[in-house]
Amino acid sequence: MQSLDTVFQKKGLTEQFLYHVYSYLPTPGKSWDGGNDASVPWISCSDEAFNVEPAGANDFCNNIFTANNSDFNRWKRYYEGIRNASIFIQRAPECKELSAIQMREYIGEAQFLKAYFYFELMKQYGPISLVPENGFTLEQPIDEILIGRNTWDECVDYVDKLLQEASLKLPNERPSADFGKPTAGAALAVRSRLLLYSASPLFNGNTSYADFRDKKTGKNFINQTKDESKWAIAALAAKQVIDKGQYELITVPKDYDTPELPEHVISDPDFYSTYPTGAAGIDHYLSYANIFNGSISGSKNTELIFGMPNMSIERYCAPNKIGGYSSICIPQKLVDAYYMINGKTIEEGGSDPDYPYSQEKSGTPTTFSSYLLPAGVYGWYLNREMRFYATVGFNKSYYVGSSSTYDDSKNFEAEYFPGGNCRYEVSGIWMVGSYRYCMTGYLCRKFQHPEDSYRYGSIKPKVWVDYRLAEIYLNYIEALNELTGSYTIGDKTISRDPAQIRYYFNLIRHRAGLPGISLAEAGGDIEKVRQLIRKERFIELAWEGLRYFDVRRWKIANEEENGPVTGMAVYLKEPEFYRVVQVKEVVYAYKNFTMRKNFWPIPQTEITKNTNIVQNPGWE
């Protein structure tokens, strides 16, 4: 093993040390392996998904998790990453073989990674401990080494400063060979999310945490007085990313296979104008699907701000017939959130007054945008918006699997009822045991490419989309909508701006082929606009790991994450299959939220080692 004095004398060894810091990044999309500290549980733990595996995420969902659980313990991992990033920042300047430009960029990368690790800890555990820049020495008294937790605002200020410093050192663009390394825009995008979260009700004047205090100083870890200017700061942070002009929403031009826009949409006067003014001229299905399914490489994805290679989740939400595991399912709640093609909700837009809409099956196959809607598809799944078809795999949903050399594993309609083609055991596939199948009747196809097949086939390379421009647009308009006054931050003055809210909201809506909102609607009741934005985040950002944090920071998790998981009656054959029921196959198919689940428990081993650390409320 090389000593640090030796490492930072050589360019190659210095670079290897930095690559090692990168190894502490999470495994994106890996939502099932609780024993792996690189796993990311947010999709499985939210109300947008259900994991059929009994332990790990479901223990947390069911509120039977304890501070002694080892699942998804990322505390030690990220503090090790922070320590190594700090060492690099302190010692790298010793390397005389690095040019000034290389040194500046490498320091920026380490600052980004350090801020990223801190933010990941904050997202999971709330206010955390900020470690001194130079670490500790053996000569220091034990009380100085066993530090307590900082306040949330102190953590935000520190991480914000790191991200701003990193953004000044990092390049604006990367060659394709450097995909996965941060840019200046990536640092600013992380900052946008950080400041949006900090402005939100969970962290901004949350009196529910009045008794959550430091043992020694008595200071509140969560501030007790709401500060609306935090929304202004968050809005400006998002606008800074937008104003770089470096990113743009993915759009695919319309061709002969693109469906026509629905007739008689009168709520949006610009609807039939060419995108971006309106929704015309682009293929709405492919414009959304191609962000995630591997059709566009990460380095060519103009919407992607920061992503990671080697995504892992797609096989876990693929049907058994193509060698998938069918183990992470979509609940009925997300299915019902998607709009109809005309922009109405399912309650508003159906032809049947009974819940939720028409039960008539499609009579003939329909092809649009390279997507096949077979004959016999249940009426619940007809005339939906394009993001629905790009995301939800329902019963009779058509899978191509064109890379497979085995005819039985391609060009099929997925069947999730007893005896269906996605309910049998496949030799050699471990995730298709007696309870490992699609228990809601819905799988996520957002990360599936038409070529993908795990049986005698291949998988289109994909990347995990960690930060993208659509989220930044939604961050911006959410923060703008919350402003009731005018604020001057530095040299910028900002207030609620209906024209800006309408413009950026409609860029997302029109890209999806949906009517936008009017200027009057954007400037109307704040609560109505708030609910529109929240629903748009639920749909547009589905299964991207954000929903879990959204419902918590809005303080609505008690309403959204309490109750049974529902889906189709997968224990019955058609037509009885098409009934919304509670998932009954396993006893843990429910979500049980209490206030303590706003934050994960700090591992008890850490509390035992350092008695100055206050455990999160409810986990004592």
From TrEMBL:
Pfam families: SusD-like_3 (PF14322), SusD_RagB (PF07980)
Entry's Gene Ontology cellular component terms: cell outer membrane
Keywords: Cell outer membrane, Membrane, Signal
Keyword Signal among record annotations: yes
Main location: membrane
Compartments in which it is found: Cell outer membrane
Domain RagB/SusD, residue spans: 295-619
SusD-like N-terminal domain mapped to chain residues: 50-196
Family recorded in the similarity comment: Belongs to the SusD family.
Name this protein carries in UniProt: RagB/SusD family nutrient uptake outer membrane protein
The organism of origin for this protein: Bacteroides faecium
